[in-house]
Specification:
By secondary structure, this protein is α+β, with helices and mostly antiparallel strands. It has four domains: 5-88, Immunoglobulin-like; 168-424, no CATH class; 429-454; 458-529, no CATH class. The chain is 44% helix and 13% strand. The chain is built from 17 helices and 14 strands. Helix 8 runs parallel beside helix 11 (323-334) and helix 8 (271-294) crosses helix 12 (343-358). The N and C termini lie far apart (95 Å).
Length: 530
């Protein structure tokens, strides 16, 4: 049987069901309502929902079928008018069967049995006799052993005995799942070396060492000084969550199909494990928001790599106990591995995570549906992360109260990190960049001044005269009086002086800043220029 796609809506008095069953056999359609149990059957579809409240079938109930859309629409009255049914959009939870409370059986106590009492006394006497014999044999055996051997205590080695493989996955409930896979295959998608042998306490140390070694100062400086055009565009891109309000969030048909196919599970988790799972959710959402912003909402072949590389929950099986450590780790990895490694860009992604969580757990579910689809369609074998983490997140998020997700949003509002906390020497790198930038500005300014001075050099071949304007230059006229001429004025034809209609090419004019050469000198200069 097929589980059809469905939607539920409610008013104060009614519950509406919209069931998409385009291949249904209408004449075989059956609908049954029993309290909170709703059943729909129409070959080849079968749907059974466990509602959060009770409904009744009465004269106000109705049903219809739209043959163009292939949709059945049913309306039933609420048993209690005005009651609000929670989580009607949590598809997997609605498909879960109702939980039947275990009936406690009455205790049976045996008061007395004469035959049993007699047998018990006989058995006690026999047991005492056997204990006496056994104790004597043990003492004799010890005496014989002590005759030849003395008690020896070997030097204790600091050896840690691990009874089972290190755990990982959702809630750290899985171990040994990767033992049968080839090591080369694991290395393609997981950074953690030997995941089935590396202890959880060692994962953080190894991860931090790997991040420090992977950080590229040149790459960071380049993105800081000359950001690429696509980085600027991604920074200004308006993501989906920036245009939505919580009431407008709804699942697409593909997301509904995914959620209705998920199995029903119950999770036994203590408060520490719940917090760890919520912190892991933030870590994965940071990678998802980075991917959405850098691809401008259009996933590509690199999206799977971005998700798994930036999330240490996925790539290192890291378990967090503090929300601040989650953000520090996510920001640090965003500055070590992806194409755009910019502090402002990472802070923008951090703001995106806060906005996603503020939209409620339904929108968080949408993001995880997108993550599931990306990993499932990745060219690399990254679907394993869906089995280890994402599928359980999709099921568990539908069961967890919305207030727990909201609490994480409040915690994120109080998180503020500094560059010094990342351990990547970002402050020193940026100071060096700014110093170089200031030096470059001074050099550029000097070059501009020099260029302006060179533009004042004037060559006028038409009049067989050349005019040179050099700053702070003085030329003495040896053929005339000892008067000096400063060569720092502006050149113009009006400043040229003549005597008796002929060019006075043998003297310098102190009234202007031009150096005038005779024709023979000009000709020789032309030859040299040629």
């Amino acid at each position: 049987m097929l589980t059809p796609r469905f939607e539920l809506a409610q008013t104060d008095d009614y519950i509406m069901f919209v069931i998409h069953a385009p291949y249904a056999n209408i004449k075989d359609t059956m609908v049954e309502v029993d309290g909170s149990d709703f059943r729909f059957y129409s070959t080849p579809y079968y749907l059974r929902l466990n509602l959060p409240g009770e409904i009744v079938e009465n004269d106000a109930s109705s049903g219809k079928y739209d043959c163009d859309k292939g949709d059945f629409t049913f309306k039933f009255s609420k048993a209690q008018k005005g009651e609000f049914f929670k989580n009607l959009d949590m598809i997997t939870t609605l498909l879960a069967p109702s939980k039947i409370k275990d009936k406690l059986l009455p205790n049976i106590e045996v008061i007395a049995n004469p035959c049993a009492v007699l047998n018990a006394e006989t058995s006690e006497n026999a047991a005492e006799f056997n204990d006496t014999i056994n104790a004597g044999m043990e003492n004799l055996s010890k005496e014989l052993k002590n005759e030849w051997y003395t008690e020896q205590t070997p030097e204790a080695d600091n050896i840690q005995i691990v009874l089972q493989s290190p755990s990982y996955g959702f809630g750290n409930k899985i171990s040994g799942a990767l033992a049968d896979f080839e090591e080369a295959w694991i290395k393609e998608i997981i950074d953690l070396p030997l995941p089935d042998k590396t202890l959880p306490k060692d994962r953080q140390k190894l991860r931090e060492i790997n991040e420090v070694l992977s950080f590229d100062e040149d790459h960071y400086m380049f993105d800081l000084m000359t950001p690429e055009e696509y980085a600027v565009s991604a920074m200004s891109y308006v993501c989906e969550w920036e245009k939505l309000v919580e009431d407008d969030v709804c699942f697409s048909n593909e997301e509904k199909d995914l959620l209705k196919e998920l199995p029903n599970k119950d999770y036994l988790l203590d408060s520490t494990e719940v917090n760890m799972i919520l912190y892991g959710m933030v870590d994965i959402l940071f990678a998802s928001c980075y991917n959405c912003r850098i691809t401008e909402g259009e996933n590509n072949t690199e999206s799977g790599w971005i998700l798994t590389k930036l999330s240490s929950t996925l790539s290192w099986f890291q378990s967090f106990t503090d929300i601040r450590d989650v953000i520090l780790c996510s920001v640090r990895r965003s500055l070590c591995f992806p194409l755009v490694r910019n502090w402002n860009f990472s802070m923008k992604v951090f703001e995106d995570v806060q906005k996603v969580i503020k939209l409620g757990k339904k929108y968080v579910l949408k993001r995880f549906c997108d993550i599931y689809s990306i990993l499932n369609n990745s060219n690399e074998p990254r679907y394993i992360f869906n089995q280890l983490y994402i599928k359980d997140y999709l099921i568990w998020l539908q069961q967890v109260p919305s207030s727990r997700v909201q609490e994480i949003g409040f915690l994120l509002e109080n998180v503020s990190i500094k560059k010094e906390e990342l351990g990547l020497d970002l402050v020193e790198i940026e100071e060096a960049c700014n110093s170089v930038k200031d030096d470059a500005s001074v050099i550029e300014s000097n070059l501009h001044t020099l260029s302006s001075d060179l533009e004042k050099l004037v060559i006028d071949n038409g009049n067989k005269s050349k005019y040179f304007n050099f700053p702070s230059t003085r030329v003495e006229n040896n053929s005339s009086s000892s008067s000096s001429t400063s060569l720092c004025g502006s050149s113009s034809s009006s400043d040229r002086s003549t005597t008796n209609g002929t060019d006075n090419t043998s003297s310098f004019k102190s009234t202007n800043s031009h150096l005038m050469l005779n024709n023979s000198e000009l000709d020789s200069d032309d030859d040299e220029l040629d």
